[in-house]
């Protein structure tokens, strides 16, 4: 484990790696007069991550742990109401500090709770899954789902700091690691061809070097959101694989006959489908498409789509937050490492992409 990764300066807040994060956190607690400290966890991170985290804390503040049941299904306004009530009962005020210790559900929801409680209290994110380290840790998006519509309610608001400690990954199951890997693959496909090529032979990846791969992924996302914090243009490139991926994820979430997919599993399918669309629009070559499809299919299980699944998935696209003026906009790769945003795609082409995915 290399502890020498440089701190990444995101817009107005630092992202610390490994040991440096705890030093910075304790210094911050010393220098700021907080009234009390609330740690938001889910049932998993309370059990597996809190025992590792708490001994690092050096503070005399009263510490309260607020736990909610884990899972995307609990990332909703009802959970927020419960936490706002608990904060109120426990005497939280504008000078309280919230620390979100968990995966993307915890940091998205905890960041939203902190951003709205008394019009906003300071919060710090400590992502504990690969997905939240390379994705939710950067960019200041906080929010919750509305029914099955992902992240429909939320705010842009930045944490005081982010601590990425890759030791937490030892508690993460293999399928969750693969889920996070999907966002790393995406960062390569949209922004950095050399980075993408490091994943072509996963067996050759030395997990001792994995820290450096995580670091580069965070760096890429940070470069993109620093240029375009509120998703007017370049940041839309991060939606590659997500336009169809989110619709697939939502459909599998709400459909009793389907096994719920992890975020990265849905995004992996989305990236193959949207690469096919890019191929059809002559943005990538057949060799590039085959490389993407083969690489992703080697990592992720094949998802079964039946004829009757496709229409409801297309219906869900209509609610995608990225749509403007009722037309569905895609961010498509333009070669590997570059992107074209606001691409209109007709339904026929989406259907062909599903057909090709199955073949």
Question: In words, what does this structure look like?
Answer:
With 359 residues, this protein is α/β, with parallel strands linked by helices. It has 2 domains: 8-171, Rossmann fold; 174-358, Dehydroquinate synthase-like, alpha domain, CATH 1.20.1090. It is built from 14 helices and 11 strands. It has a 7-stranded mixed sheet with strand order 1-2-9-6-5-3-4. The chain has a two-stranded antiparallel sheet with strand order 7-8. Strand 7 and strand 8 (149-156) form a beta hairpin.
The coarse overall form would be: globular
Secondary-structure element string: EEHEHHEHEHEHEEEHHHHHHHEEH
N-to-C CA distance? 41 Å
Largest sheet: 7 strands, mixed
Tell me what portion of residues adopts beta-strand conformation.
15-25%
Q: Helix fraction? A: 40-55%
Number of domains: 2
**Structural class estimated from helices and strands:** alpha/beta
Second CATH tier, the architecture of the largest domain:
Up-down Bundle
Uncertain runs with pLDDT below 50, 5 residues or more?
none
Cofactor: Co(2+); NAD(+); Zn(2+)
Protein name: 3-dehydroquinate synthase
Domain 3-dehydroquinate synthase N-terminal: 66-178
EC number: 4.2.3.4
Compile the SSE list and pairings.
Blueprint: E1 8-10, E2 13-17, H1 19-31, E3 37-42, H2 43-48, H3 50-53, E4 63-68, H4 77-89, E5 97-102, H5 104-116, E6 122-127, H6 130-136, E7 141-146, E8 149-156, E9 161-164, H7 174-191, H8 193-197, H9 210-227, H10 242-254, H11 263-280, H12 286-299, H13 307-317, E10 329-333, E11 339-344, H14 347-358
GO biological process, one term: aromatic amino acid family biosynthetic process
Function: Catalyzes the conversion of 3-deoxy-D-arabino-heptulosonate 7-phosphate (DAHP) to dehydroquinate (DHQ).
Domain 3-dehydroquinate synthase C-terminal: 180-323
């Amino acid at each position: 484990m290399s502890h020498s990764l440089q701190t990444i300066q995101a817009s107005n807040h630092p992202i610390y790696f490994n040991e440096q994060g705890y030093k910075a956190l304790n210094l911050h607690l010393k220098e700021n007069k907080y009234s009390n400290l609330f740690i938001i966890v889910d049932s998993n991170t309370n059990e597996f991550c809190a025992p590792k985290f708490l001994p690092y804390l050096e503070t005399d503040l009263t510490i309260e742990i607020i736990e909610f049941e884990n899972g995307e299904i609990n990332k909703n306004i009802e959970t927020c109401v419960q936490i706002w009530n608990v904060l109120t009962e426990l005497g939280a005020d504008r000078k309280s500090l919230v620390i979100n210790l968990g995966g993307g559900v915890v940091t998205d929801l905890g960041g939203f709770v902190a951003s709205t409680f008394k019009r906003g209290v300071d919060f710090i994110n400590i992502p504990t899954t690969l997905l939240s380290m390379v994705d939710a840790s950067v960019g200041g998006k906080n929010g919750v789902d509305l029914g099955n519509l992902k992240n429909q309610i939320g705010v842009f608001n930045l944490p005081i700091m982010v601590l990425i400690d890759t030791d937490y990954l030892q508690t993460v199951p293999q399928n969750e690691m693969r889920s996070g890997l999907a966002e790393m693959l995406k960062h390569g496909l949209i922004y950095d061809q050399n980075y993408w090529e490091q994943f072509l032979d996963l067996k050759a990846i030395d997990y001792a070097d994995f820290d450096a791969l995580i670091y580069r992924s965070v760096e890429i996302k940070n470069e993109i959101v620093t240029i375009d914090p509120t998703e007017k243009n370049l940041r839309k490139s991060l939606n590659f694989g997500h336009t169809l991926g989110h619709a697939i994820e939502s459909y599998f979430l709400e459909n009793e006959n389907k096994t719920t997919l992890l975020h990265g599993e849905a995004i992996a399918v989305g990236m193959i489908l949207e690469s096919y669309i890019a191929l059809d629009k002559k943005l990538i070559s057949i060799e590039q498409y085959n490389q993407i499809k083969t690489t992703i299919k080697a990592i992720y299980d094949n998802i079964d789509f039946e004829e009757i699944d496709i229409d409801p998935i297309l219906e869900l696209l209509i609610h995608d937050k990225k749509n403007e003026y009722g037309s569905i906009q895609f961010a498509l790769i333009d070669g590997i490492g570059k992107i074209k945003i606001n691409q209109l795609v007709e339904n026929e082409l989406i259907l062909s992409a599903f057909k090709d995915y199955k073949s």
